[in-house]
Every structure is written in structure tokens, then in C-alpha cells.
Design a protein that fits this description.
259 residues; Rossmann fold
């Protein structure tokens, strides 16, 4: 299903359904298509919102994880969302963490999947020459347990991003910013219920990263999915949605304490 991209001021976003806000943040090479199964499943119970992060539109000095967080904050302020269920994949998870640390009062729950913020394997020490399609294809395949998930359409999408010199510079700036911005010492401040959904075969943010998040975030629960890489909501959407729905339904219908 195609979703209409809305615009308010400088913000572009998708907003589908009614109910408590479920706000989704995509990663560095992410797109709205990453969340299509999630949107379709949850729009019947929640107001599902996907802001288009201006990954390559900010000036170079603000092309940082912090710069993206400021954009998300202004978007949320403009729209007036509260009691948000915030979900982020990869770099989007990192942005979500910075947001919740700065503005905890607006967030009801946090979900991270393949999030940066502690450790991630990036593109390596150097970026390939622009125009190296095979390199981009191999890197895109590494995102998934099943390389066939890296369809020609998806590889073409990533390749189109990487053939522009300025865009490549900004990709490197964002990747370096994510590595510098390690949140290990601050994660104990996250008090909201937190769900961690991780691919057991994630090579970008490997399983030990998920275990570390689980250890450092006080009120967190961790679910691993077998035969799954860095983007579970794309690779195993039914299982991902089942785990997320179970988590969110507990927040809607909390179990009464036994006296």
C-alpha cells in the first residue's frame, strides 16, 4: 500500500491511523519502505508516524546524530505529540536514544532494533570510489541474513544515494558522529519500558551489542530472532510485529500488582 507523504513547515512525514503515537525512525540508508509491514499492521491500533529524516539536507556542521535529534524534537513539538511509543532502527535507534535522554516526558516506551549508540561495524576505514556498484551490492547484502533480501530495487536505492560526492561526505560525517557519540554511561537514565528486538545474525550491531543495551537500560527486555540480520522489521516482519504488539499491549493493559 502506498502512503501519502504529508508536509508541515519543513517536515515531511507519513501519518496513518488513530490512537497513541507510534513514531518510527529509520537508519542511515533507510527509507519509508523499511517500515511498510509495520505501518500496515499497527495503523489499525495506533497513529503510526514516520518522519523523513533529513540525512543529506542538513549543513555539514549539523550532519550529526545530535543534529538529527534536534530535527525530530522540532517535528514532535510542531505536531504536539505526547505519550509516544518511539521506535528506531540502526542510526534511527541512536537518534531515539538521544531524544529520550533529553525529552523523557514525551515518551511512553522505547523500542530499539539493530541500534547504534554503543558499537557498530560501519563501512570500514575508507569509503569506496563512487560508482562501485558491486561494493554497494555486497554491503547491502550484509544487512540481511538472507542476501536475496537485497533486491536490485533496494541496491539501486542505496547506490543512488552514494554516487553524489556531497552525500558521501555526509554519510561519512554521520557514521563518524555515531561512533563518537557513545551513550554507554547515560543509558541507565532511560526509565521507560524498553524493548530490544535483535537479529541473531546481525553483523553490523552484533548480538553482544543487544546484550549490553539490555544490561545498561534498567527496564528493558531483549528478544533475539534467528536467521535474521540488521533489519528485523524488513526481514521477518511477522515475528517482529508479534513481539512488538505483545510488548505494547502490556503497556495498554498493565497487570495489576498483587497485594
Amino acid at each position: 500500500m502506498e502512503y501519502k507523504i504529508k508536509q508541515i513547515d519543513k517536515f515531511k512525514y507519513i501519518e496513518e491511523g488513530e490512537g497513541e503515537p507510534l513514531l518510527l525512525l529509520h537508519g542511515l540508508f533507510g527509507a519509508l519502505s523499511n517500515f511498510k509491514d509495520l505501518i500496515e499492521h499497527f495503523r489499525h491500533q495506533y497513529k503510526v508516524i514516520v518522519p523523513l529524516l533529513p540525512l543529506f539536507e542538513l549543513d555539514i556542521f549539523h550532519t550529526t546524530v545530535g543534529g538529527l535529534e534536534k530535527h525530530v524534537h522540532k517535528f514532535i513539538e510542531t505536531k504536539g505529540y505526547n505519550n509516544i511509543h518511539l521506535l528506531g532502527n540502526s542510526l534511527g535507534g541512536h537518534v531515539a536514544l538521544i531524544y529520550i535522554l533529553k525529552h523523557p516526558e514525551r515518551i511512553k516506551s522505547l523500542t530499539l532494533t539493530g541500534s547504534s549508540g554503543l558499537f557498530e561495524n560501519g563501512m570500514g576505514d575508507s569509503y569506496p570510489k563512487r560508482g562501485d556498484y558491486e561494493y554497494i551490492k555486497r554491503k547491502t547484502e550484509l544487512t540481511f541474513f538472507d542476501p536475496a533480501m537485497a533486491t536490485k530495487e533496494l541496491v539501486d536505492e542505496v547506490y543512488a544515494i552514494t554516487i553524489n560526492r556531497i552525500t558521501v561526505i555526509k554519510i561519512i560525517a554521520l557514521a563518524k558522529s555515531a561512533i563518537r557519540n557513545n551513550l554507554g554511561e547515560e543509558l541507565n537514565q532511560v526509565k521507560q519500558p524498553t524493548l530490544l528486538i535483535w537479529g541473531n545474525n546481525d553483523t553490523i550491531t552484533p548480538p553482544f551489542v543487544a546484550k549490553e543495551f539490555n544490561k545498561l537500560i534498567p527496564n528493558s527486555e531483549l528478544h533475539f530472532i534467528d536467521s535474521c540480520g540488521h533489519a528485523p522489521m524488513m526481514e521477518v516482519p511477522a515475528e517482529f510485529n508479534r513481539i512488538l504488539e505483545q510488548f505494547l499491549s502490556k503497556l495498554k493493559h498493565p497487570v495489576a500488582a498483587v497485594v
